[in-house]
Design a protein that fits this description.
This protein is α+β, with helices and mostly antiparallel strands. Helix content is about 35%, strand content about 15%. The strands form four sheets. The chain has a four-stranded antiparallel beta sheet with strand order 2-7-5-6. Strands 9-10-11 form a three-stranded antiparallel beta sheet, with no helix packed on it. Strands 1-8 form a two-stranded antiparallel ribbon. A hairpin with a 2-residue loop joins strand 10 and strand 11. The longest helix is centred in the C-terminal third of the chain and has 20 residues. It is globular and about 65 Å long. The chain starts with 12 loop residues before the first helix and ends with a helix. The N terminus is likely disordered.
């Protein structure tokens, strides 16, 4: 469309009323509108966030809530027997959020008005995302707490939480977000609880498509397991006596550790699948044996394959 020209787009009054929550709908092409019409025929996500429905369907509750407030000067890493929640450690290239050693005592948490309280954080499994500067949906099974810039869905039902995580991270959901939430000339989108409730649908599960859902959960478990592989799982460190090193090199089937004039060759039990984390570690000033052993190494090619396979299955569930 040339600058200054106008395009006539005819929209049924019924469609306009159905999409009154988001006027970006008017700017979409026919291909997306056809897709969105079919997408909305799926089930409302209230099946999860309305406790009576969730309890009946899943025998579990799902809490949709916002982050909280806490005194940052009270963050501690000292040992304690008191109830506590840990500061999260978030990496953009990973789906899982792990807890740091730093924590806030439970009695210091300040829940905003309208919050469902500590029950949200007592639930073991959590889907987490940033309200502003949204990147993706993350997963955690650790007792973390989140500041007010984050949003979460929590539950004690692991399989349903993983399933919902895959729906939210799917290419189908990304298409919805990018077309209906992203403003022209804006890179960032805002994704709050209301956004999820208003725009996200979930597939209707029947006896015929239940195997697809189970497969999605299975692949999501495998995806998360990739992020648990440590260098110690791939390299034999049994003959290493020195605790700190100056540098290291990777040579064929060996990891070569250097400390002054001393060189230690460690046999690689498996090929290191991805070396970027190793390159980051190489630049670290704290190149210790412990840091090497605990370094996470992710097989990115397998990670990409799993994400693609999950996306295909999610799309089938939505549109079969």
């Amino acid at each position: 469309v040339l600058e200054g020209e106008f395009v006539e787009n005819r929209v049924l009054q019924s469609e306009l009323f159905a999409n009154v929550l988001n006027w970006n709908y008017l700017q979409q092409n026919k291909k997306f509108l056809d897709f969105y019409t079919k997408y909305k025929q799926n089930q409302d996500i209230s099946l999860y966030y309305q406790h009576s429905l969730a309890q009946k369907e899943f025998q579990s509750l799902f809490y949709f809530d916002r982050g909280l407030k806490f005194p940052k000067d009270k963050i501690s890493a000292e040992e304690t027997d008191q109830k506590r929640y840990f500061v999260p450690q978030i990496f953009k290239k990973q789906t899982q959020i792990k807890a740091k050693n730093d924590y806030i005592l439970a009695n210091l948490l300040d829940f905003p008005f309208g919050s469902q309280g500590e029950a949200v954080y007592e639930a073991r499994y959590k889907i987490v995302w940033s309200y502003m500067n949204f990147q993706q949906f993350y997963f955690s099974d650790e007792p973390i707490m989140l500041d007010y810039n984050y949003v979460l869905i929590s539950s004690d039902n692991r399989s349903e939480t993983l399933y919902l995580l895959s729906l939210l991270n799917s290419s189908v959901s990304s298409l919805i977000f990018n077309h209906l939430l992203r403003l022209p000339h804006e890179q960032d989108i805002l994704v709050g609880i209301k956004t999820i409730k208003d725009f996200i649908r979930i597939p209707r599960i029947t006896s015929e498509n239940e195997p697809l859902k189970r497969k999605i959960i299975e692949l999501t478990e495998e995806l998360l397991a990739l992020e648990m592989v440590k260098l110690a799982d791939l390299v034999d460190f049994s003959k290493v006596l020195i605790q700190k090193f100056d540098s290291f090199e990777i040579e064929k089937a060996s990891l070569i550790l250097k400390s002054g004039d001393q060189v230690t060759k460690c046999h690689m039990k498996k090929e290191i699948p991805f070396l970027r984390e190793m390159e980051l570690l190489r630049k670290s000033e704290n190149l210790t044996l412990k840091a090497l052993k605990t370094q996470i190494v992710i097989d990115e090619s397998r990670q990409a394959e799993l994400k693609k396979e999950i996306d295909v299955l999610v799309e089938k569930l939505y549109f079969l």
